[in-house]
Here is the input.
Amino acid sequence: MSYPSDIGKGSFEEIRPLLESVRKRTKPRTVDLYEVFCGVPYLLKSGCQWRMLPSEFLKWRTVHSYFSKWSEPGLEGFSVLERALKKWGRRGVCKTGAQVLDELFER
Here is the structure.
């Protein structure tokens, strides 16, 4: 199934080295990094809960694990995920639906 948040394979190949730089080389990867990454923009755009990730994506725990690693801030203060999304062409800070609701209720 196709989603508006999907990234093309060509665009993904441009950011793949950036995403792969986070992983420690202990054993061969058993999942397709493209499939993992596709779940992240979907979650950021839809604001759904991790457990509600559609079945077309990998298991939510797998996507969450990579998301957590990619989201850790680097030395310059930006995470690998932020740099990858910017390189892909996404602009600004991505807020989930839950974050927007939290901000509304804080007022």
Observations:
- Helices lie at 9-20, 33-46, 60-71, 80-88, 97-106.
- The chain is about 55% helix and 0% strand.
